[in-house]
């Protein structure tokens, strides 16, 4: 078996190098190796895709083409092929009637005149009041509104915010944006006659009451197009500008979408996490050195065998420490699933660090995460079967089936029930029947068989040997001190893993629930590595002090000691919900908290399994170093 210390050091070293390389060149982190730019020439038609509307105030996106108050899609409109992640995040990409011809500026063009009923106008007013934004796509770039970052005219830097407002509320009235000025920024391809590469897609929206004509300059129109609960006729118009941009290149065109602020906060988080990890490392080192010193003394001085002090209380329970715990089959199942999540998380983060998963790969995180989880079922079955054999289980196939269905089945049930509420709102975030069927097939048709295959090889491995024998009669456990009680120890143990990640957690929640791009994969990988080391150390400390108190029921407690930080994450998510979001409807709130519960379950299984594996290794090592008659 590979030494844990060597494995942890390798993980930290690898992620540290990846973090430094990722942080040293932000622009290159978003270039997918092997992906070539699309080169356009004058006169080529560039398709503009409409996608969805989304809001920071609601986790319910809606397909733009299905909105009853906008222009209907063309009859020959084609839907873009979507990966699994895009479907699950509510993308519904469709071609539009907007005419974008390379090199051709359009001053003012009418797209359509839409007669909107009172009901649909009220719906539009509601979306505008809830700050919904529109997402269009050109050459895989989302349409963006421009803003400046920095103080002073000389220090201002151009930045993009993905999407543009559907409308705005002015003087307590909802005004719909019915005119857009589309600015396509391009870079001339070196060595090519007239070849152009698109490096920017800006959309400037306006709300104007055109009357019967399309204004050349929308800024000079004083009246806004108001939508309320009355029938209204809306004229949709647009202008197009092609502008050469000599500052932005195709390789770093995504950097304008990624706000380069807050790095000092991340470094503060890293330093804070490293201090916590070093403190725990020191405690674990003292425990191990003290233990080894006493063991050597026992070997050299026979009379010291009868010396029982507070530091050697753990030796008194050598006959019970490997006693089979209660609900051992359930423990095997959740630990197997925990291993599955660990493999998925590490693999996904590594793909992100090397640049394969980035904001330009829409839906990549979800797609890769799901596929990696499915194929990691073999690891789940293998570890669960090995542990099940230790607990003297009699049916490894039944254990493998429980491993593959217990937690995933619970999560799938939550997704199905939540999807019924989302469906009732006609949101594009509702999972289509075909996609849901594909998820079930991935689960039962791929993950379950792979779990059985892994379990087959796991049960064929030699039994994990434990030092010493287990007594037939359980030893009586003395009454612990108040601060050594299981609930208090578990609650205290979960605090430190949460302290390691809570600053990075804020940015992750903002990216998930406020529609912002998360791109700090170097920081994420480093924090994740520190989190795993912290879970290892806090579980070892909690279990060691528990055994010193002559309490040998460590199996479940080693799992909960680090996984309990998921409870603090849930509490923090409640604070984030009240302080950062403006969700005040039942279904959006239900979506938020249901997804938060599922995230906490995944996180708890991942950290709890890490703590259990390290504690199991630690206990086997210390008891194998003791002379037991």
UniProtKB/TrEMBL annotation:
<feature type="transmembrane region" description="Helical">
    <location>
        <begin position="590"/>
        <end position="619"/>
    </location>
</feature>
<feature type="transmembrane region" description="Helical">
    <location>
        <begin position="363"/>
        <end position="388"/>
    </location>
</feature>
<feature type="transmembrane region" description="Helical">
    <location>
        <begin position="330"/>
        <end position="357"/>
    </location>
</feature>
<feature type="transmembrane region" description="Helical">
    <location>
        <begin position="488"/>
        <end position="509"/>
    </location>
</feature>
<dbReference type="InterPro" id="IPR004240">
    <property type="entry name" value="EMP70"/>
</dbReference>
<protein>
    <recommendedName>
        <fullName>Transmembrane 9 superfamily member</fullName>
    </recommendedName>
</protein>
<keyword id="KW-0472">Membrane</keyword>
<feature type="signal peptide">
    <location>
        <begin position="1"/>
        <end position="29"/>
    </location>
</feature>
<dbReference type="GO" id="GO:0072657">
    <property type="term" value="P:protein localization to membrane"/>
</dbReference>
<keyword id="KW-0812">Transmembrane</keyword>
<feature type="transmembrane region" description="Helical">
    <location>
        <begin position="267"/>
        <end position="289"/>
    </location>
</feature>
<feature type="transmembrane region" description="Helical">
    <location>
        <begin position="435"/>
        <end position="457"/>
    </location>
</feature>
<feature type="transmembrane region" description="Helical">
    <location>
        <begin position="559"/>
        <end position="578"/>
    </location>
</feature>
<keyword id="KW-0333">Golgi apparatus</keyword>
<dbReference type="GO" id="GO:0005794">
    <property type="term" value="C:Golgi apparatus"/>
</dbReference>
<comment type="similarity">
    <text>Belongs to the nonaspanin (TM9SF) (TC 9.A.2) family.</text>
</comment>
<feature type="transmembrane region" description="Helical">
    <location>
        <begin position="521"/>
        <end position="547"/>
    </location>
</feature>
<keyword id="KW-0732">Signal</keyword>
<dbReference type="GO" id="GO:0016020">
    <property type="term" value="C:membrane"/>
</dbReference>
<dbReference type="Pfam" id="PF02990">
    <property type="entry name" value="EMP70"/>
</dbReference>
<keyword id="KW-1133">Transmembrane helix</keyword>
<feature type="transmembrane region" description="Helical">
    <location>
        <begin position="400"/>
        <end position="423"/>
    </location>
</feature>
